[in-house]
Amino acid sequence: MAEELRAWGELSSELAAQLRGCTLCPRQCGVDRHAARGYCGAGAAVRVAKAFRHPWEEPCLSGERGSGTVFFTGCNLRCLYCQNYPISHQGVGKEISVARLSAIFLELEAQGAHNINLVTPTPYVPHIVQAIQAARREGLRIPIVYNTGGYERVETLRQLEGWVDVYLPDLKYCDARLSARWSGAPDYFTYATAAIQEMWRQVGEPVFDAHGMLRRGLMIRHLTLPGALEDSQRVVDWVLDNLPRGVYLNLMAQYTPLGRAPEYPELATRVPREQYEALVAYALERGLECGFIQEMDSASPEYVPAFDLEGV
Ligand code: SF4
Fold first, then answer.
1. 101-155 pLDDT, tens per residue?
2. 243 lines ligand 1 (CB under 6 A)
3. CATH number at residue 87
């Protein structure tokens, strides 16, 4: 297998061309990533900070043996309060080949992972498509999960059609003032909602196996921010008003003031219990039927993995 891995170790010329004048995400920086880095901090090579069986994703992803999570370095949103700040802002991670990425997928499966969970994958879509293709040829069977902040271009997502089984996007904000202030993206809602519609078109509603593990489908996450109950309610409204009833919306309470959050009084606190309970009550009143809710004690830095190059 080593010889074969070497044979597809580099990006195909067609995929590499996308990195010259990169427009993979809504930032559309246009930089030549073979010579410079764009807004996301990604160059031409894949960088990964950790690959391990994550025990703390939703139960239908982590199960008993963990979700085979690959944390990519760089991010096209770079939220000030990022819960994974060392990899999204500080460049923690190691350059690897596409062949190595594919081998990591196979290793996680061999360790028993229930799925391959690609965290912040957007800047590396060309590499990921090629790595998945190769790993499938080598016998990879578990589902591929595309775990994204939601700031995506539909044109890029179309490259993933048929290769991604589960889409796990955030829908972080409705209000352009919030998305501009905390994520530098006033157009976030426009792009994220178009992306979610495209994801729904590709994979539809969740399909679970006999053990309750997610095999295919769209599952949306929303992390409620301190003081932003009204915007979180608008997120619930959009999901219920624009997608079929079978859609999953996971309401997350785990916000922890990490990254640069302590510099901003609005972000420097945890989400009050009353705010989260009010959001869940609102979602139920509005008729949300499917989704996961969290315990308030999930808001702790101890649930953030160490980005220590494990498994890379
Ligand atoms: S993926 Fe990175 S380099 Fe490419 S357009 Fe987005 S932010 Fe810019």
1. 999 999 999 999 999 999 999 999 999 999 999 999 999 999 999 999 999 999 9
2. no
3. 3.20.20.70
